[in-house]
Fold these 3 entries.
Entry 1:
Amino acid sequence: MGVLKRRAFSIWTPFRRSCTAVFTTKPQSTVSSLRALCSVTESQKKEAFRQAVLNTLERRLFYIPSYKIYGGIAGLYDYGPPGCAVKANVLAFWRQHFVLEENMLEVDCPCVTPEIVLKASGHVDKFTDLMVKDEKSGTCYRADQLLKDYCKDKLEKDLNLSAEKAANLRHVLAVLDDLSAEELAAKIKEYGITAPDTRNNLSDPYPFNLMFQTSIGPSGSSPGYMRPETAQGIFVNFKELYYYNGNKLPFAAAQIGQAFRNEISPRQGLLRVREFTLAEIEHFLDPEDKSHPKFSEILNLEVLMFPREDQMSGRSARIITVGEAVSQGIVNNESLGYFIGRVYLFLTHLGIDKDRVRFRQHLVNEMAHYAADCWDAEIECSYGWIECVGIADRSAYDVRAHADKSGVPLVAYEKYPEPREVEKLVIAPSKKELGLAFKGNQKMVVEALEAMGEKEAMELKAALQAEGEAKFHVCTLDKEVIIKKDMVSISKEKKKEHQRLFTPSVIEPSFGIGRIIYCLYEHSFYTRASKDGDEQLNVFRFSPLVAPIKCTVFPLVQNQQYEEVAKKIAKSLTTVGISYKIDITGTSIGKRYARTDELGVPFAITVDSTSSVTLRERDSKQQIRVNVDEVASVVKELTDGVSKWAVIMLRYPTHSSRPSVTGDFLSYFISVKLVKLLLVEYSTLVAIPQLNDLGMTTATEDRDDVR
Amino acid sequence: MGVLKRRAFSIWTPFRRSCTAVFTTKPQSTVSSLRALCSVTESQKKEAFRQAVLNTLERRLFYIPSYKIYGGIAGLYDYGPPGCAVKANVLAFWRQHFVLEENMLEVDCPCVTPEIVLKASGHVDKFTDLMVKDEKSGTCYRADQLLKDYCKDKLEKDLNLSAEKAANLRHVLAVLDDLSAEELAAKIKEYGITAPDTRNNLSDPYPFNLMFQTSIGPSGSSPGYMRPETAQGIFVNFKELYYYNGNKLPFAAAQIGQAFRNEISPRQGLLRVREFTLAEIEHFLDPEDKSHPKFSEILNLEVLMFPREDQMSGRSARIITVGEAVSQGIVNNESLGYFIGRVYLFLTHLGIDKDRVRFRQHLVNEMAHYAADCWDAEIECSYGWIECVGIADRSAYDVRAHADKSGVPLVAYEKYPEPREVEKLVIAPSKKELGLAFKGNQKMVVEALEAMGEKEAMELKAALQAEGEAKFHVCTLDKEVIIKKDMVSISKEKKKEHQRLFTPSVIEPSFGIGRIIYCLYEHSFYTRASKDGDEQLNVFRFSPLVAPIKCTVFPLVQNQQYEEVAKKIAKSLTTVGISYKIDITGTSIGKRYARTDELGVPFAITVDSTSSVTLRERDSKQQIRVNVDEVASVVKELTDGVSKWAVIMLRYPTHSSRPSVTGDFLSYFISVKLVKLLLVEYSTLVAIPQLNDLGMTTATEDRDDVR
């Protein structure tokens, strides 16, 4: 991902952008409603919700501030056991949804990157933030953050603010992302902004490169960086991957891995971090053909889109099908549209609320000059709309940058079915004659002649034919020379071409895995009253796909028989590949349910007899009775998505009360029929005698009472 | 993983060790057979085999030298698509085998690590290699490598070497790992070793820290490093993880992630790299109880073991059960033995040849002083026996080091069922009297008194009672002082204790994933003659578990009907989660098989009719006919390990010739019976009419002919 502007970098600077996007992207509507947005009740509510989520996440070790016993390091977090499992599940689904389904070429490149690679991509020169330093203490701050804080604070708290001053501050917020170092310096001076902690004076803003620098090898002469994104590892391998793909376009390569950005002063907890997992796709395609073979599959998908024009004119995001967006020219091309659709399906399938994900098009001034079109998948959470996936048509910029820097041609070709006849200009300087005439300057003249464009060459040819000689400007000598007829032959020849060579374009969907996971936490979190109503209990409504643990196993009471059954079930869960947690503490069953709800475990097995057990679903709290030998495969069916809970409910008797023989017999009969239909062509009534095996004679209390 | 010696670090320095292990660990037998080992034919054979493997791996993009278009960087490699898939499969199985089956707590910590953490672990001070510099060019070399090269070269090539000189050189090789900087310097001087490329003089050896250094945050005042191992992230979280586990021991935490070592001059290709994936387990347990609840499961496992004593006395490694190894005291404890067994099962299940994996115990001088016992799982490949997994009982060293450095207590406790009465020594110095007597030295005297052991304290008490005063040595003052009776009270008191506090011990299995994968490549590689015998074809015999792609789909000839069937099958493979590669080129089917064999694809589906297809197994080259609608689920059955190929063979007609009705009917009948037995209790003959559906009427040529 090359750049000319800082903002053209992928999704980790954009968080700044999306924070300010409230101001930049909806200038009319938003600026006027700034105070409303910041109204105490609304932001307090969001803050309280976020705190509830964060408390649960930290208490249950979804994450841990890294090196906590040493006081922690800003912007570095560990995933604890459930967080780690959620992340592994999200990545596994990403692989299934993108790599496997699209037959992508996955690669795995190192984080340590030599300087030349990031010089070519533009990161060494341009991947910077503007920084100011406390002149006495040396503490560093991001210049735009200080200015933003000042403006927001004034607007919120200064009741005597004149209308003119307020408008001025709002304008600054709106253009914050576009301010140069000089403009930032001027504003900081104008407002008298000082260091927040000490009130000392600040230095002028200067660029700070956000890459972690290091040195490769012992000599100290090979500077390197920890990669700020994974994309470069794919670009430099284009030639190999193209060959691996049978020299065919389009194809996509993908990479999941760590990326590093040495943020000046990380804020916003889990959203702006110094090390994070990226999952990036580079879809290489012919710049003259950006259609997508599978576009029809997402054509009718309705997604919330926020095109550039709507942002500029103060309209809201609107629902539109991907097909319409492409055919109306809102989205630049089919392949870009295809990935917008696939990203939407990925996010919503994970559990992101479909009404709180939108695709926002970059404004013209947000995009790099070479980009054809860029869209961000933004997810709404308590911090606002957060960019979680960037989807950019980056044209041929990145591949060409590496070809130029390395001198290795990185091109694709299209073989013509029939050779095509083309007219080619042939310029043949006579080195002998030119040598005699220009001596040491011969080489420069030859190069200048060979570099002529078609028009210039044909004019020279005409002049030479008419006059026998002509004036010719040699730019490397910075003077005109006289070229004679015998010094160069210029002609047009017809040639047969068998193929077209070109630098491929790239469409790049780039996923910030940590941000997606954080938003997923917020979208999955809810509270509900405990049975006695005196407490709010936390629940994560993770789908089985995402849930860190699929199932818990509890013996109802501490007794050896039940514990053995629990262990037997645990073993069969392991065999079918279901992650579980066994809890043999004597804690009340209600408390144990509350604990697992807080981890988002979708199913709980309570061992309350030696022949059958209670299976409980987290959100509905419904409970059914299943045979000990069967329960692992039932949980497997549910977590694999083969059957929904509603279907399983039909198949087994409910637990809540002693079953009425008729009712349960009926549902049992229906379920048996369903099963049999799946297995054999005809069903019989032979199942009836097995009814006794179900052991529907155990405890009847509702187990959701907490303390 | 703390250290006092460089060698006490985990598995990435040990490669050096295992390279020299040939010399250090079997002093008698090996040194005398050194020339034999290095004989041209043997090493040439190994070299040729390695080259064949490496050529195939690089040509088929299992790996790519990183940043190849820029000339590459020593010690950095990319995994290309098949390599990346193999790695993902190995890691998925690792998670299943260790994390899931053992209910481990997996965490995911950043690579960027602040200095204090690695100061505590010992890496900042001790994680070094001795380096020499070319005095003119500045090129750096590892001192021990140069010395080793010199000795080996002399022994191999100098035919006039005296017996005495040869013995001297062999001795140097044997003790290479133990040489200090001064000893290395002396040897380099003695032998007149110069820089290999320039013959310039070399500097004296000096330590070079192998960690990639960087700086966290913009101020430059927070040094950090890229972690050299993942273990520290677990240790610093002990308190949180112990709590998460319900304050119960034993439990294990695990982490998979990148680690970084800035090697001075990496050699040996994929085995010694500057960035690599580690998978580490820290099993926390009570130092007073190192039994393992699941030890009985691996008790009778026979593994090749190479205990310390056998190495020292020149014996060979021998097969022994893990149970015997523990009961005979060869392996220190049950938990260590349990992990040896589990590691063995992991490696052999992946496809590592069971006869070429051994567990080598560390010699006493290889272990850190605090370690209770260490074993390396070494795998034999063309480079010799390579350490791929280290399994160490590291006692309480690491946890204690972080507790000391951070000041946060990192302890576990054992609650007694009944409170226990214990006699406790109570030393109460009188600060007032001591202050009057010792003024500014008071603090040192107080501390020295409090630090007394029981014996010393009781002796002092007796002396004070008898004489009224006594001499007392204060080590921090380095002198004796006179202590009077009123300056300290010493007594023994009976106290009730409800629990025992202790620092947990740690058993650490640490897996070098890249090394395991490389050895797996070598163990899986073989060649076989092409059908016409004029070429050797490469095959990787990967198990379905490991294979990068499970299945290929080929239309036999280029035709739209077959291509559509191929796409239909591809779609159903995706649905059941099987990775496949579709090849619709017009290449001969034999060539296409050869291509997929080289990628280690276990199964190939050739579309040669619209109703049924040919399914071919890679190693046996056997082919059967399966219905189009059925083939994805058959491949799924095979790759999930639910059925073996031999069983599937019974169920379907073979492809090689038109089936004789009787033979195939028989095998079909048997297979139907098997299936039915799985599904329902009784089988019928209703299947006969379906025989026609199998479409066994297509092409009969053998498809393994290559060109």
Entry 2:
Amino acid sequence: MKLYIAPRAPNPRRVQIFIVEKGITGIEEIPVNLNALEHKTEAFRAKSPLARVPVLELDDGRPLGETRAICTYLEGTKPEPNLMGRDPTERAFIEMADRRVELYVMAPISNWVRHTHPGLAVLENPQFGEFGKSQSEKLQEALVWLDGALATQDYIAGDRFTIADITAFCGIEFARLMKFKPGEAGYPHLQAWRDRIAAKPSTQT
Amino acid sequence: MKLYIAPRAPNPRRVQIFIVEKGITGIEEIPVNLNALEHKTEAFRAKSPLARVPVLELDDGRPLGETRAICTYLEGTKPEPNLMGRDPTERAFIEMADRRVELYVMAPISNWVRHTHPGLAVLENPQFGEFGKSQSEKLQEALVWLDGALATQDYIAGDRFTIADITAFCGIEFARLMKFKPGEAGYPHLQAWRDRIAAKPSTQT
């Protein structure tokens, strides 16, 4: 299998961490240069019609896009260690947690970065600075919730490490482009959780 | 079980259609008045900390939030008719299709409506009109792709009706608030698909 990634982009990183956590080996990583708009070429759009990374090319040649869908596939190929739930009920509660950190933490962080950071002007065109700034304010409500949750549980979805921790970690780390650090912003439990995840071998790349 | 919904809101509608398609009965629907900000009350936040609908309250009292996570749970309770994939590989490809229409069709439509329609000013505060307008333009790339896909396949994820059709339908229908009709906008295959879905008993409510 081949995994099309973009160095430093948060969504490919989610899959890269997932693969290391699962102990899956033998997937070739192929970098796509976003700033050179390589993802918008006809060749890449044949694999990803809306020009998104990551894409996993299966051994039969089929391209599978969308971060979380790629993880669903990989979890099927190697169920343990389990990161997405062992039965439908656990799968649902982990998916709830994963969506919350994706939609209410990672998405506003992405909007904040993409609409206000000069380095993203090529990829987010046009940028709407005031909208981006307001997203950083909306983000705070989700961080208050998340910090409170992490005061009484070790991981995003409860008592064990799951895909939701990977999603939240890649989102929070992307905010470092905005000099954001949870502890300095008043979220000590989120900072402690972030430091635990940052110490894992899977997040060293 | 109890399902907390908001009349006419697209995300609760996704679950409502899913339930009818599955043939699941006996779930009590409880309306939440968004314009009265009932979702922001302490009582509702105990079920949904970030004040989102829908929420499914399980028989054991646990609140399960997030549209797609609720569907994952319900698919587990009643696997047939299958709407989310019968094995991990099929689940992954349907999830890919579902995410594409959620993130690249429904989300820009939501941003377009929420940031430009006067009726949404209470819920989306502040509104950023120019950003909203630009989202309607970004939407077109996804609609070109989707219209092209539906020229050669009957459903969003391929040859059978799945959760991805429900997501796309609720997104496209939400755009009616902006007087958007796929056929008039130059997407004839999307219009034909929309009309087939709109004729199903599950979408009559």
Entry 3:
Amino acid sequence: MIIVMNPNAAQSAIDRVSAEIERMGAKPHLSRGTSRTVIGAVGEEAALDQNHLASLDGVEKVVPIMKPYKLASREFHEEDGIVEIGGGNVPKVKIGGTHAMSIAGPCAVEDEAMLNKIARIVRDAGATVLRGGAFKPRTSPYSFQGHGEEALKWMRSCGDELGMPICTEVMDTRQVDLIERYTDAFQIGARNMQNFDLLREVGKTRKPVLLKRGLAATVKDWLLSAEYILSQGNRGVIMCERGIKTFEDSARYSMDITSVPILKQLSHLPVIVDPSHCCGKRDWVPAVACAGMAAGAHGVIIEVHYCPSEAQCDGPQALLPEVFKELMGQLRQIAGIFGKEFADAGTLV
Amino acid sequence: MIIVMNPNAAQSAIDRVSAEIERMGAKPHLSRGTSRTVIGAVGEEAALDQNHLASLDGVEKVVPIMKPYKLASREFHEEDGIVEIGGGNVPKVKIGGTHAMSIAGPCAVEDEAMLNKIARIVRDAGATVLRGGAFKPRTSPYSFQGHGEEALKWMRSCGDELGMPICTEVMDTRQVDLIERYTDAFQIGARNMQNFDLLREVGKTRKPVLLKRGLAATVKDWLLSAEYILSQGNRGVIMCERGIKTFEDSARYSMDITSVPILKQLSHLPVIVDPSHCCGKRDWVPAVACAGMAAGAHGVIIEVHYCPSEAQCDGPQALLPEVFKELMGQLRQIAGIFGKEFADAGTLV
Amino acid sequence: MIIVMNPNAAQSAIDRVSAEIERMGAKPHLSRGTSRTVIGAVGEEAALDQNHLASLDGVEKVVPIMKPYKLASREFHEEDGIVEIGGGNVPKVKIGGTHAMSIAGPCAVEDEAMLNKIARIVRDAGATVLRGGAFKPRTSPYSFQGHGEEALKWMRSCGDELGMPICTEVMDTRQVDLIERYTDAFQIGARNMQNFDLLREVGKTRKPVLLKRGLAATVKDWLLSAEYILSQGNRGVIMCERGIKTFEDSARYSMDITSVPILKQLSHLPVIVDPSHCCGKRDWVPAVACAGMAAGAHGVIIEVHYCPSEAQCDGPQALLPEVFKELMGQLRQIAGIFGKEFADAGTLV
Amino acid sequence: MIIVMNPNAAQSAIDRVSAEIERMGAKPHLSRGTSRTVIGAVGEEAALDQNHLASLDGVEKVVPIMKPYKLASREFHEEDGIVEIGGGNVPKVKIGGTHAMSIAGPCAVEDEAMLNKIARIVRDAGATVLRGGAFKPRTSPYSFQGHGEEALKWMRSCGDELGMPICTEVMDTRQVDLIERYTDAFQIGARNMQNFDLLREVGKTRKPVLLKRGLAATVKDWLLSAEYILSQGNRGVIMCERGIKTFEDSARYSMDITSVPILKQLSHLPVIVDPSHCCGKRDWVPAVACAGMAAGAHGVIIEVHYCPSEAQCDGPQALLPEVFKELMGQLRQIAGIFGKEFADAGTLV
């Protein structure tokens, strides 16, 4: 950690900072420049309290050198991490390293028949994990909020029948136990990325967690949220870039494609992209999905509907079956250019 | 609601949209322009499903005309709303309309002595509501997370002794009952603004809720979150602007000062500003607090510490007692220019 | 254009709006809803003054239906546009439709030898257009500002010798004539995207213009800037997405990858991506370049240096020769998946 | 400057960085931590090439310690700067330190009669400098572009007659000489804040320059643009905060109110706010103007029109005369709270 003093900081202020650094177990190294004194604190950075040092008299700013996360860091875990979803009645799907794949299904589970129909469509096109919302986060209290446990049951039996692991969103700490009984993987939505109690609760389970990036979260914030889960002992975190909030208003959010290589450099955790929620309009979804794979993502999560105008939720962004199928072929080719194998139902059996 | 068709939309697509509008109970009005057909849906907009219409063939975009929130809207409640915090052992403090006030205290409640000391300082300077964190949302799992129920007890007894209502943050649906037993007002933090289950739970209580704006939330999103609380029957919502996430990195967040007059035009709900979390550095807090009052806010929430370098949380942004006192005088004068009365302990007795 | 009236707008205000619409040559269509009157103006939207209508009493908002640009619009020009760079002493390179290619070279032209060396490297790897800065826009007045006309001469003779068209930045209306004498294509930098006088001046020439997107420009703003050039009779506009300014600070800017399919839907103009300036760090450049091609771009513009630590400008983002060569192979493969032919020096001869 | 090495940087890489620091005339100070080596470069930071160091092998990041601007810095000029506008036929108006004031007038100068009428209105309400656009930057090439030199003549004769200095926008290097002959102060618009040639040209004159902040410019970028002007010998720079581009779309831009105290801490240059362009809608302009003064600004620039619906440009944001007059009274009272004197025509005579 580096402490930059004000140009006019008194010697007593410099001494105080040095003393505090020693008190915290590190060693201060002073560099007196022409106009400023800079103090390096050498030692275990985690033991240093950045806020405390920034609050001392005469301090202009404090610059941390180490990353604030550990378990999520590639420095801690040099090899690519590989997460497995599934097991038991359904095959295990690998994600990470050279293992790429896709998660697909409807936005919300509206009824059992539509779920089964869409699940077959996406499996036949090559998706290996089934998604579907049982509890839906909606910006308006007057919108459809999901079918809850009933939808979880439909998901489970559909996944078992088709041999697809399932993934569904958890929104509230009180739902964790219930959802854990049914699902193969939890999804944490963008708006809950810093719902720290929820992160801790899913961290206590041993089911993989798909952690969507918050709309205003930096890559660092996002990795710190992963750290919450990892620190509880759950190592199955999959990062999901789904667009950030910017001034551009043509699409709902702006896919931060550069975050894919940045995340892979900083962390060993697998990363996928969600073009559906980012775009909000199906026309642009295939292009953004392909961009994600070409940027190095380990997969995509995509919403599909055979009749989007009947969807109770986010119909405008759902891909039609034939477009999804064509896209899967393109994703497989792109993965191949970069030495990744793109899983499909056939690969798993 | 207005449906703009593609330039080359077929007549059958136009007919389908019109039929759907009628099916939902509204009347379609067609305007055929030189290059596009535009269909107005006249009737109860709440009954119209925007997503459904946007998903139909040939539709370029759907433009809603009505606001998506009702109870939070000034159209629904023309007079300024006035919320009361307190009652029982402590006086009631009014906020809204011509009633302005300040909420102050430490960021986190670290121990009982420091809480009592800071509470006296802020009350003597003119603050009427005491803030303090018992459960702390922290971006890192390794940071201090608050003293929980013990801190709530200290808060309650301190508030009762000094005659100050108290306000503290709730982060998890499972904490609502516990916190309700102690506090006079709930605070919902920025990162939980779209934790919809939490909004619903505090909406079921009858204690006022200070709803901080999310870091990536538009004013519309923020009012929809207020609507979640209001729709459960709790009418005591106070909006708190605390800065949004932008590219500017000198301060932690950018205080969106324009949101104050915009919110007051759209809604009857009282609005305050939080300059402490927005700035992240005490040097700029008084200027931003004064800006908030001059923009028409009904008050401020400010963190104060007698020795910020000892604070366990957010020390760099805590105001020193003498600076807070001077600021309170300035805020009172600014409130006076705009015909508002700024409450202090004397006014309440 | 649609005019939404306030809920309590007087009949006289509605009449005034209708009269103004008629005065401007369009027809007003009234829809009286339960709480609001909405007036559609049917006719030539370009003839309607949105600001004027928005200023009238009782108007809540004005919603335009048509795009504000014409010549840049796909409605005006349905087929993909194809722009040619070069001619005379150098071959012509096509860009747009199924024609993809890459522009590469140093950030700034530092001396003739380094330019010649880098030009050979990028040509041998498959780049077809040579880039290089003679006049450099720098945020600090104390940074290297470019070698001016001398650098233009080196560029011209290098391009002629290697058979590569050249592209260089113009920053000031007073430089247009000078640069036109040397270059095959103009580049307008992000900070000048709304330097309207400059847009008009390059619009008067008949050399292609690479128009970089401004850091705070929406896709609509960007197309309106293209319209400035097109409206002067120059149809050779190539759009270049180079990242927008957002809160994320790992990379210098955030590549808005979704803008690629959006732009292609709205406009016939070719679009390329600039991963070098967006990333600011070479580690992430190949991933973002590949993402751009996979999203549908017609090419990339990339900075290359054989010894980045000696570069006088933007060394950290320059690709090393062997990385650039590998990347070109990947881009060619991605282009192939989407039916595009990726030009190289061999193709042109 | 501080150079943070990668965790696994070789000794040879560390030696190379040290040698380069010495070659540039500074001294390297090594701190070897548990996982990283950090090298401080002590000496004249301006002599160090950050990009060069960042490009060397094994370097993770380079952290500058000094500000990149000098003449714009409060470290260089500790006292508040005071800029004078006017002289010759018109009185001089001071801005900066305890001198506050307002600039007002129409957006565009549409004809001589309207200019004279509005000038009288704003002068009688207390404005001391007259604004008005002769050359207008418009996002669409089809919008009204201003009356050019004729408008400058009307401005000059109106200012002379009423005893008001005038201020008008310059957009192109080729206009500098012409505008200098007429105006008392130049205005550089937000879209030209990084038009570096233009900054240099107005820097060569000795007329004050109102420098609006760019839509995507950090406070640091903005000060570097001021440095361009100052470095040419023109010390009369007035900074104007006019809102930045964010995701919030109710207002046109988001007034970054915190930038006012930040700028005053970093620089001695006077700062004013422009609520008209930021809001884009007159309803919110007075609140934002008052916020600016309460945050410590030295004044405001505001658009006024007696009949906004007839304005050829930005009518929706123009204040009505009686609202402007009331606002001026409020601004004067707020200035008084903070010990500033708010100039009016009477004060100047």
